[in-house]
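Fill-in record for PepSY domain-containing protein.
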Amino acid sequence: MGKRKKQAKVLRIFRKVHRTTGALLFIFFFIISISGLLLGWKKNSNGYILPETQEGTSTNLKEWLSMDSLHTIACNTLHSKVSKDLDLALDRIDLRQEKGSVKFVFIDSFYEIQLDGANGNVLSIGQRRSDFLEAVHDGSLLDDYLSTDGYIKLGYTTVMGTSLLVFTITGFWLWYGPKRMRKEKKS
């Protein structure tokens, strides 16, 4: 088999791999691209995707209430202002000393309560849609729902990362291969 025929055969194989992978994973690539696009815009969404960080009255931690007191205020606020049915389990506490505020981020329904660190006043109650989008983007939403201890996320990110690598390699070769073949034909 001649060199040109071998190159053409490789191109056909790459085209088939590229097309098959794209067809099989289309919906996943669609979900990843939309969620990734929205995550890129989260801080420029006027607080819709990610609530904006509010400013408290003091950046001096010595003037702040205890974390226990702030936590109690945040939990009471979640139940009184949002819903008594929400679980009070925390995902994290995001302390913003430079802003004088602290965010209590709850696992249930991705809510956050922002408080003034010094006086405990509620600065903001918001839903962190960005946290939901991140869970969709990396597959951890299914992991949490099915309680699979990270295995779905691991499998999902492995398949999608490998597929993106395959797409990059085959896509490059589908672009470069014909150029190379034409160049060799002229010589």
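KEY FINDING: The two ends are 19 Å apart (CA to CA).
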